[in-house]
Amino acid sequence: MSWKQADWSGWGRALTASGQLARPERQSTLAALMRDTPAPAIGGCRSYGDACLNDGGRAVRTTRLDRVLSIDPEAATVTVEAGVTLGDLTRLLAPRGLLPAVLPGTGFATVGGAIAMDVHGKNHHHAGSFGQHVLSLRLLTPGGPVEVTPGSDLFAATVGGLGQTGIIAEATLRVLKCKGDVMVVTERRVPGWNDFLAALDGSEASYCVGWIDATATGDRLGRGILEEGETGAGLIPPPGRARSVPFDAPAAALSPPVVRAFNAAYYNRVPRGGRTVVRRIGEYFFPLDRIHDWNRLYGKRGFHQFQCVVPVAAAPALRRILERIAHSGLASPLAVLKRMGPGRAGHLSFPMEGYTLACDFRNTPDAVALIETLEDATQDAGGRIYLAKDALATGAAVRSMYPDHGAWLREVERVDPEGTMTTDLVRRLGLRNAA
Amino acid sequence: MSDTWILLGATSSMARAMARELAGAGATLILAGRDMDDLRATAADCTARGAVSARAMRFDARDPESFQPIIDATDGDDTVNCAVFVGSMPPQDRIDADPSLIDGVVMDSFTGPARFLQMLAPRIEANGAGTIVGVGSVAGDRGRLGNYVYGAAKAGFATYLSGLRNRLTRAGGHVVTVKPGFVDTAMTWGIEGMFLVAPPEAVARSILRAVDRKRDVIYTPFFWRFIMAIIRAIPERVFKKLSI
Fold first, then answer.
1. Quick one: CA torsion of A136, A139, A143, A144, rounded to 10 degrees?
2. Of B49, B186, B189, the CB nearest to A92
3. Where is the FAD-binding PCMH-type domain (chain A) (predicted)?
């Protein structure tokens, strides 16, 4: 069995791990590996914090197990190896009039990772979470392979379960039959916070997301752009070459004046009266994927993303969170506000009915201190933070945000009593300890 | 009628990458190797990616009985092409301890695939078309301390391909010899001293470019041509004392 000593990090690059990596190319190799030296899976490493890290330990990279095993256009289902990326799957399905039912903001995430994090997309208010479209899984637990289907305890502990029940080898997903291969997108300026909530609540579009100017304060607090999208048929030129960020940017690249100027320009780019544009599917769902390694724009020290969701009734608390971000002057241009539905598929799934806010911060002591206060505010508001993004939270707070933690832990301890699937995130938050 | 491609050793990641490229271009694929479950998964993947058809067939370089059924499966196809990715490289110290391992290395890397190609050659001559891609290794350019049995087998295969090229060119066929440097595969994963490691997708694309342009011998990535030119130029008197 081939293990390689390697250093790696999550997408935020603020935390790193040094350990042994395997990267099996065949299912038989993966199965043998789980029998002999069970270790947690990592995929595209697009979670921001330490969910994909196992410092001083082992991890199994699934990216070479990325084959599409069947596509059934009639039944609208696909079976894939878990290392296939969502971008690849989207490209293969599009010509057949199919679309993954839920897509997060990057196509470089794998299906296995999307399940383990129970990710959501711009259609969460209608379609629910990724895990709700999983029809079955072939899971390699430390005790052996198991077929897992919705409704079982093991399913609820695996979907959104941070990889603690084993390695997902294959998954069968329900996909959407969609009209075509482009997105028709309507963009509208929203002048402030109250208007934004009203716009999100009132939107009837299939896909809906808000970009928010997290540097605007006063009357402009919460201003941004509402993007509503529908799938459509049409022709559009193929995408240009992806570009990449070849070096770590200096700190000044994302200093407050630069971000404020960028955000103002970005806001004003959309005409006062709004506009409707046609976008490629990939460009709409994965807007940042065209710039490879964009995380390097935050410099060598990396960055953090804070993402929380709060119940509808706690909207005023979310406004206070945004106020705190805006006044700190630490925010980057990447800030997103979305309406979330109740859909979730696992005990540790992030979604809850309400509003979710995400914002990136360059990794500085001030930002770390700010994020800690934001997490406290989220907890007080009855909300929760997203473990796919988190690198800073404390265990007690997270366990109180996830009331089903006990049910998850019982099942995880049943299938992995030795704790071989433990990752840095799970250790940091003490998730394998009883509350 | 689309082109038929037989890929021998189709479980390797280089072959898988090439199969995906060919699938995207609408080829008919025969994926041959020993791990049938893995081949069936790749065949399904190739079908999803646009192959006219893709089937898994058993090929074992050490079992010539497995050869004919593969050739028979291409009966009636207009253009039959074949790419050879098979080969085995046990650590040299294991061969030193058990010299009988040499037979297997030579069969996997040279005589097995050569015998198969020998059986396929008349088909290409009859069709008046068809390309053979033989994946050798830069290790075949010079016998080195670390892997000289594998290198010798690959050198033999390269010489065989040269002769086969000479034969098939007259009949409208073509032979491309590919010498990859370090490629990011399961074979090189975790091995010390790897540098300038190329992703298998890049190697697959350069192979197909070489097929299109009817190149005879390619190094991939291209700079290995220069690296190997230097290594070949070292006088034996000096080389015998080096451990590179």
1. 90
2. B49
3. 13-178
